[in-house]
Design brief:
Number of strands: 11
GO molecular function: formylglycine-generating oxidase activity
CATH architecture: Alpha-Beta Complex
Shape: globular
InterPro entries: CTDL_fold, Sulfatase_Mod_Factor_Kinase, SUMF_dom, SUMF_sf
Distance between the termini: 23 Å
Pfam family, one: FGE-sulfatase
Strand content: 15-25%
Helix content: 10-25%
Number of domains: 1
Protein name: Sulfatase modifying factor 1 (C-alpha-formyglycine-generating enzyme 1)
CATH topology: paralog of FGE (formylglycine-generating enzyme)
Largest sheet: 4 strands, mixed
Length: 290
């Protein structure tokens, strides 16, 4: 895991989507976070040890995207082991786990003695623990000087053209696109990642929205994101979906409180009362919500 000392950071963006604004200051307590998303191999160890069944396995289906119809479709027998269906290639051990719901992610995290990150922690890590105007965790350019992509994202115009210039039409091995200055990988693209908190609008955002405790935040974008339609791999980008949802481009990584990491709580249930020290310092200086 990667350690972040915490501190003050600006959350959000004034130049992104409506749900990313307005920006505000947050104070983040020290924490650890996985350097890459949980892999298929790691999730398999959890299943083999506990006999756990994912929501998708219980439902008998999970979501794939139909690029011709431009809709998600629930497809029978799609699971974390067969992410493209029973006739597709099996999941690869070094790729991020997919077809897992928020409930599944929480179950794994509990087994591992960890927890899911709050989205502010996730953004803090994506920004490398710094107040920066960089669009992405690795800087401001999606490609290097040779035109090579720095993340597993849609390469072309979604959904019509994907050049697959990096040879990954779907997920890629974790860490395949390098690491950030803080040692993190896959903080943009590859798979969206579940966060612990419910989705709600930022302080000062008065766009009509009815908060639902069953709707959770996802961060990071995926291999389906391009620069026009989604652009979800920006550090400030955030989306949401219901806690039982699973699909082929959504996974998770875990976090841990510093005191728990120090005590090495392998396979123990984390403190369910863990709170994120988050203070809105802009115009709600006394409002501590989490």
């Amino acid at each position: 895991m990667v350690y972040f000392a915490g501190g003050d950071i600006t959350i959000g963006s004034e130049h992104g989507l409506t749900n990313e604004a307005p920006t505000f200051e947050a104070e983040i307590a020290p924490f650890f976070i996985d350097k890459h998303p949980v892999t298929v191999a790691q999730f398999r160890a959890f299943v083999q040890t506990t006999g756990y069944k994912t929501d998708a396995e219980k439902f008998g289906n999970s979501a794939l995207f139909n690029y011709k119809k431009l809709i998600y479709e629930l497809v029978d027998s799609v699971t974390w082991q067969q992410p493209l269906g029973p006739n597709g290639a099996p999941a690869k051990d070094n790729h991020p786990i997919t077809h897992v719901s928020w409930n599944d992610a929480m179950a794994y995290a509990s087994w591992a003695g960890k927890r899911l990150p709050h989205e502010y922690e996730w953004e803090f890590a994506a920004r490398n623990g710094k107040n920066t105007n960089d669009k992405y965790s690795w800087g401001n350019s999606l490609t290097d000087n040779n035109g090579v992509f720095k993340a597993n994202v849609w390469q072309g115009h979604f959904p019509d053209t994907n050049t697959v210039a990096d040879d990954f039409a779907h997920t890629s091995p974790v860490g395949a696109f390098g690491i950030t200055s803080c040692g993190m990988s896959d903080m943009g693209g590859n798979v969206w990642e579940w966060c612990s908190n419910i989705f709600e609008l930022y302080p000062g955002n008065h766009y009509p929205y009815q908060k639902d405790p069953n709707v959770k935040v996802i961060r990071g974008g995926s291999f389906m994101c391009d620069s026009l339609v989604c652009h979800g791999y920006r550090v400030s980008a955030r989306q949401f979906t219901s806690r039982e949802t699973s699909n082929f481009h959504m996974g998770f990584r875990c976090a841990m409180d510093v005191d728990r990491r120090t005590s090495n709580p392998k396979h123990q249930t984390p403190n369910q009362n863990t709170t994120i020290k988050t203070t809105y310092k802009s115009y709600l200086s006394n409002d501590k919500r989490f």
